[in-house]
Amino acid sequence: MSLLAPGTPRLGLGLAALGRPGYINLGHGQDLGVRKDVDTMRAHTWAMLDAAWDAGLRYFDAARSYGRAEEFLGGWRRARGHEPVIGSKWGYTYVAEWRTDAPVHEAKDHSLGTLERQWPETLAALGRAPDLYLIHSATLETGVLNDERVLARLAELRAAGVRTGLSTSGPGQAATLRRALAARVDGVCPFGAVQATWNLLEPSAGDALAEAHAEGWTVVVKEGVANGRLSARGLSGQGDVPPALAGLAREWGVTPDAVALAAALAQPWADVVLSGASTAEQLRENLRALGVPGGADWPDLAQSAAEYWQTRAALPWQ
């Protein structure tokens, strides 16, 4: 179920690469330039939010672990008087202390204690409740989907009007999502939204996302450009953009990232597809995905889920 008004572009802006100085997107350090102090990053993020808003985008995605992303977004919202649709996430804590060379950037903990601590932090940073509130990178291994106390608390938040859900990561995305679809608190599923990785390299969650959409869940796609691997600076086995993707980009007069995002937008179950742009130029290129033909014959670039996530795990923070 989409939270966007009819006619609103289904592209949103994710702040994973904007709310903190280090991230794993290819070329991230170069994109942000030499100065990465808090004030400079805030000004840059506000400029990106302004550009996205002016382009018609109304969905913005943050998380407690995205450095100061919630703070930046909340400050921008109050200063501009805008009311976007906001998604945020709990379950990871930012621990890098604003360093790009930190040995650890995020600490994962899906306990009730983390939820109870981070929910008021999110409210304070944003200045209001998010429209979507997701478990950050839920997996079967953490046991969060079997934690009755966590599920009960999320059910309370959903009853209060927050669309609760989960984000997924790793080769087990589909199994995790199906477990969430089956979760019940007093006979009612506490979830109504999912944010999952889907792209031309890693489409394995597609069938499960279609099932969630059929159940009325909001479906948000993240990493549609595979952290830059499906952009002009992307990496394949030979260090080049996959030829089939590059060929479509040339044919349509756009950049490869626009084709990759258009492929995600073409999925009938996708309510919102996130741009992870770090610069105004990247955002302009991403926006061209909205004009790419929806009925295209998308190239088959799929890797095994295990191979994809192994490669992603090796990407350096920069």
TrEMBL record:
Residues 42-290 form the NADP-dependent oxidoreductase domain. InterPro entries: AKR2_Oxidoreductase (IPR053135), NAD(P)_OxRdtase_dom_sf (IPR036812), NADP_OxRdtase_dom (IPR023210). Pfam families: Aldo_ket_red (PF00248). It comes from Deinococcus reticulitermitis. Transmembrane segments: none annotated. This is Predicted oxidoreductase.
